[in-house]
Amino acid sequence: MSRIMDVLRRYLKGKSIIRTMMFSFLTVNILLLLLLGLLSIRDSTASLTEELTQSSYKIMEQAARGLSFNLEEATRPLVILAGHYSVRALMNPGRQLDVEGRIQHERNLADVAFGVTSLQSFISDILILGENGYVNNLDGRITLRWNYPFTEQDWFRQAVSGTPNRGFIPLGLHNQDYYMEKYISKYDQPTLSIALPVNDHTRKPIGAVIANLDLNKVSGMFELTANQNNQSVFMIDSRQTIIVHKDAEAIGTRLAFKGIERIHAEESGSFITDIDGRETLVTFHPTTVKGWKMVSTIPMSVIRGQADSLKSNLFGFIYLCLLLNLLISIVITVRISRPFGRLLSALDKIGEESVYVISNHYKYRELNVIGGKFKELVLRIQTLVRQNYQSELARKDAELKTLQSQINPHFLFNTLQLLQTEIVCGSTEESNHLVLSLSSLLRYSMKQSEEMVELGREIQNVKDYLYILNKKYDNRIDIEYRIPDQEILKHRTIKLILQPIIENVVLHGFGENPVSARVRIGAVSVKKGILVAIRDNGKGMTRQQLRMLRAQLDDPDHRPEHIGLYNVNQRIRLKFGPDYGLRIRSKPGAFTAVYVVLPKV
């Protein structure tokens, strides 16, 4: 034992390879052990996070089912009241009721309201509001302010103008400021509402039946499903406003944290972000009401705290490994001192093909060789990364090649309605033209075997699309095609690049009610190839909007609002290079012009 200590003392005294190797070995192994510990803790935290995420999904799914069931139950009295003859009679603006008739109808409503109150615990109140100023609720207007302008409220206008989905119209969150102040349980308290319009015999809305939901009971349903991990389950609307929460003060506040846009961009999912300075696991799940999302938040400190027992055991194991590592490193250092030179010589032969010239940077030739081999490994990794990047570009190009502009279901539905109207009116020629244009659109968009088509066929597809679209607006869009040289129509281009531009022109330039609308489509030869110009006299864009849109089109990693223009620009650039693509000019209130620069192919 004393001999081993003398050898170690001799080698470790002063600067030597053995000392450097021993301490390096110890340092590396200590770091590896610490890394192992950190990875184990991280993996355990990740496992707990995944487990809690799945648990949150089940919790929110259960809550969403309960919410759906209760909303269906709450819809039943709305259907009964909206179809009740007394409700229609009291709301009918063209019919004046005598006192006796009005009293009888009020009694009928009171009988129905009694049944709703005794059976529906999910509903706090039902408002019966007519366009003619009629107002009633479950307690016979006792709690309501008589002079409140119900018909001027946004939520009432939404109730009489909306279209029921899943049996009702969601009105969202609003304050109950129409109750008398002495009813403190309701006055100026937030509520969620669902509604059904009341229609007269001509199907014209004459009022609405609105059910105010009891937020305390809705929130209580969420609290029953939450677990004991300091978890908070609540619900938000499409504007990131909290509409149901166990903390009443949180209702009506808007969420604002990094990544919140994912909640409505994706169906469901989870992510980790900072909320009020705390790292938090956020999980979200859809509900049956469009725009309403269930959200669960759990502080990551709670999740990491559950791994404390594992940490204490792991640290004890690491301490033991460090002690064993010290003893083993001493033995290995003594035994490896002689064959170390032979090992480095072998490594030197392996490194003869390296393209690097190794400098004497590490002070020892042996470590320089190891550094050279490491550089060679880095070079190979860089080559692999480059190859992977090229493969990724090829994959992205393949994805863009398969991109097809699909017929919007709403557009198809409107076209069929137009066709039905023309047939009913006996317009044989117009209906035949509609059928031919629609069939041409479908055949052109669904034929995936062609990637490149003649420019003439692409413009003909635009003509078919604009013909159908213009019929929807009673031919209020003035369309003109200016192509002085018909020969350029024989050149080939990428399929389906003009229709998305036309869709943006109509949607963003004219909106749903085009007036004095003009669209000019032209194609001319230019120095670079072919210039296709699409110009409208719509509302245009400000300089800031135009500058932002141009920046978004030039950013390959950005997904702007104008996804159609972005896809068209990227497809053209990937196919023909950065010299081609879209150019946009605009002036507020005057025009917007989109120029498509294409090569002559």
Please provide a written account of the structure:
The chain has 601 residues and is an alpha+beta fold. 51% of the residues lie in helices and 18% in strands. The strands form four sheets. A five-stranded antiparallel β-sheet has the order 2-1-5-4-3. A five-stranded antiparallel β-sheet has the order 7-6-10-9-8. Strands 12-14-15-17-16 form a five-stranded mixed β-sheet. A hairpin with a 6-residue loop joins strand 9 and strand 10 (293-299). Helix 12 (409-424) crosses helix 14 (455-472). The radius of gyration is 36 Å and the shape is flat. The protein starts with a helix and ends with a strand. Residues 398-477 form the Signal transduction histidine kinase internal region domain. Residues 48-296 form the Cache domain.
Question: What's the SSE blueprint?
Answer:
Elements: H1 2-12, H2 17-82, H3 85-91, H4 99-119, E1 123-130, E2 135-136, H5 154-161, E3 169-175, E4 190-199, E5 205-213, H6 215-225, E6 232-236, E7 242-244, H7 261-265, E8 269-275, E9 278-286, E10 293-299, H8 300-305, H9 308-336, H10 339-350, H11 365-401, H12 409-424, H13 428-446, E11 452-454, H14 455-472, E12 477-482, E13 492-494, H15 499-510, E14 517-525, E15 530-536, H16 543-554, H17 563-576, E16 581-587, E17 591-598
Helix pairs in contact: 2-6, 2-9, 3-4, 10-11, 12-13, 12-14, 13-14
